[in-house]
Structure formats: C-alpha cells, structure tokens
Specification:
about 40% helix; globular; about 210 residues; alpha/beta; 8 helices; single chain; 8 strands; eight-stranded parallel barrel
Length: about 210
C-alpha cells in the first residue's frame, strides 16, 4: 500500500548552490516538517542526478519522508527512492507504473480536467496542478486558474496539490479549493532559514484549511 502525505510537498532547486549548501537546505526543510520531497534536476547528467539522489535519499530516510524523483524513472529505480513525478512530456504514467510496480508512488502534472482524468486512469497516485502564480524557477510554466484547480479536485479521487509561486502570504487564494496540499520550491529553497520557512508554510496551510 502506497502511503504518503502531500500536505507540504517540497520540490528542490539546486541552481547556483554548491552541493553541501544544497544538502543542508534539504535537511533543514525536512526538520521543518515537509511531508513529501521531490528532487528536481533539469540540467544535469544521469550519473550526477543519481549521485545526488542517493545523498538526498539518505537524508529523507532519516526523517521518514518519501523521496520522489522528477522525470527520471531510471534514476528512481537506481536510487531505490519511493517514487517518481511525471510531466506531460515525460514517460506516460501507465508505463512508469508498469516499470516501477504497485508499491511505488507515481505522481503527475495536470493542467486540465482531461489530463487529470487520464493520469488517474493510468495509475497516478497524486496530481500537481498549476502554476497558480508565476514562478522564478527555470521550469516552463503556464498559469492555471483556481477555478480549473477546483474542477480537477472534483474530477478525480486522488490527492491534488497546487503548485506555482506559492508562499505563506499568498495561499489564501486556495481557501475554497479542495486541495490536499501545496507544492513549493522557491519559498523554501530561497529562504535564509529553510527550516523556519517550512514550518511557517505548513502552519499557514493548516490554518487555511482549518486543520
């Protein structure tokens, strides 16, 4: 059974950081209460990605946090992480599920109700939907309305997380959307204190949802 909590889903960005600083920020975020962590490396070779995945996995295992690998099913397999996240141009969800098996977490990006339904039908465990706000990451983004986000939440029975430029100060826009959590990158990665940033984001989300 695949068990996980998407309340505070942290997606990494190692841009302009040396490895020691990057790993320190990852560990501080884990201490701050992130519930799911995705290693996202868009511009690195396979061996470097694998090496970093193994180092990050050593950290996340200490805190009992599932590690998700962005895009790369091969790296997820080689590093023996808990799952993979797939975008619309990556390997189809059903093939990732076939390769990884039933015990691994397979997440997917969806920007429309149709994409959400397809991902769910192919075996996705959760969805990331956005971008709600413009982002500063190098990932190409298309803005998604909260109305579309709400429709996606209503269309599928799996967890749906909002993503894209979210901070503790602007997540109020999500108050009426039936989401299961938020995905953040810069709000933690660019914070001076990643532990405090994670704590504040988690508290803000729980307050928003009355938890």
């Amino acid at each position: 059974m695949r068990k996980f909590d998407t309340t505070l889903y942290f997606i990494t960005d190692s841009t302009a950081l040396d490895e020691q600083v990057f790993l320190y920020k990852v560990e501080q975020a884990c201490k701050g209460g992130v519930t799911l962590l995705q290693l996202r490396e868009k511009d690195t070779d396979t061996r470097s990605y694998l090496s970093l995945a193994q180092k990050v996995h050593e950290i996340t295992k200490r805190y009992g946090i599932p590690l998700i690998i962005d895009d790369r099913v091969d790296v997820a397999l080689a590093a023996e992480t808990e799952g993979v996240h797939l975008g619309q141009s990556d390997l189809p969800v059903f093939l990732a599920r076939k390769i990884l098996g039933e015990d691994k977490i397979v997440g997917a990006t969806a920007k429309t109700v149709e994409q959400a339904k397809e991902a769910y039908e192919q075996g996705a465990d959760y969805l990331g939907v956005g971008a709600i706000y413009p982002t500063t990451t190098k990932v190409k983004t298309v803005l998604t309305s909260v109305e579309t986000l709400s429709k996606i939440c209503d269309a599928v029975p799996i967890p749906v997380n909002a993503i894209g430029g979210l901070t503790k100060d602007n997540i109020g826009i999500l108050k009426d959307a039936d989401i299961d959590g938020i995905c953040v990158v810069s709000a933690i990665m660019k914070a001076e204190d990643s532990k405090q940033a994670a704590e504040e984001l988690k508290a803000a989300y729980k307050s928003l949802k009355g938890k």
